């Protein structure tokens, strides 16, 4: 417990602002939405403006004229822990069903808790939520990667007050999987997974607006012990061998993220889970044979414990 706490404190303070806009040593990054501080940041990058180059060929001239057309902004990429305000967790929860735009800021505070820089963004869509690989053998702290697609970003004088936000310790070994009708007590690994939102743009120039499109939920790849594979194999044979497909042969479940005391911090609810493939895998370092299962999911929903 003491080692974990020290590591987390180091992670919170291992953010310095580099030339490319990333955060590294000796500064703290924070995210605010709608004027409210919502999360500390492990890392933050992006937001640079860039222009589409428009060509204007002239049949009477050898040189093609060029000028800037639409102005866009790089996506903002943020890494957050599970110690977040409900404003952010609710935004994440709605990302795959009712996506909305939010404005906010990314700020930096130095070791003396003095605000030193700030980027404001307008009308951003939460376009990606990526969860790290969950591995029972891992000792790494867990962070969720968020990608925001803003319509405008501005670097402004630092004006937001530095806020102290409570972190919730989480390492990626602390998780469990629940799927109705299957033995999930010996799941040792879930590969990185997440939600992506397609974006369409309307308008042109500086009046360009982003609109949410259809969400995409990644497949899941999980590793289980052969000792718990019987019900999984029966489901696999029913669907892939016997051809039993449709909603009645799909399942529901949850991936649950746990704190050091193994109490629930957050979960990702899974709907309409279908099986794609089962295969064998040898565990590195010993001769144990494991089973790898690939699944599709029609819907994911992130829910943080309030």
How much helix, percentage-wise, in residues? 10-25%
Radius of gyration: 23 Å
Strand order of the largest sheet: 9-13-16-19-18-17-12
Number of domains: 1
Kindly state the number of beta strands. 19
Indicate the overall shape: globular
Keywords:
306 residues; mainly beta; six-stranded antiparallel β-barrel; 19 strands; 55% strand
Description of the structure:
- The chain has one domain (2-49, 69-304).
- It is built from three helices and 19 strands.
- By secondary structure, the chain is mainly beta.
- It has helices spanning 2-12, 86-94, 230-241; strands at 15-17, 23-33, 36-45, 49-56, 65-73, 76-84, 101-110, 115-131, 134-135, 144-149, 152-156, 175-179, 187-190, 193-202, 209-217, 220-225, 251-258, 264-282, 289-304.
- A hairpin with a 4-residue loop joins strand 7 and strand 8 (115-131).
Quick summary:
The protein has 306 residues and is mainly beta. 10% of the residues lie in helices and 55% in strands.
Q: How do the helices and strands line up, and which of them pair or pack?
A:
Elements: H1 2-12, E1 15-17, E2 23-33, E3 36-45, E4 49-56, E5 65-73, E6 76-84, H2 86-94, E7 101-110, E8 115-131, E9 134-135, E10 144-149, E11 152-156, E12 175-179, E13 187-190, E14 193-202, E15 209-217, E16 220-225, H3 230-241, E17 251-258, E18 264-282, E19 289-304
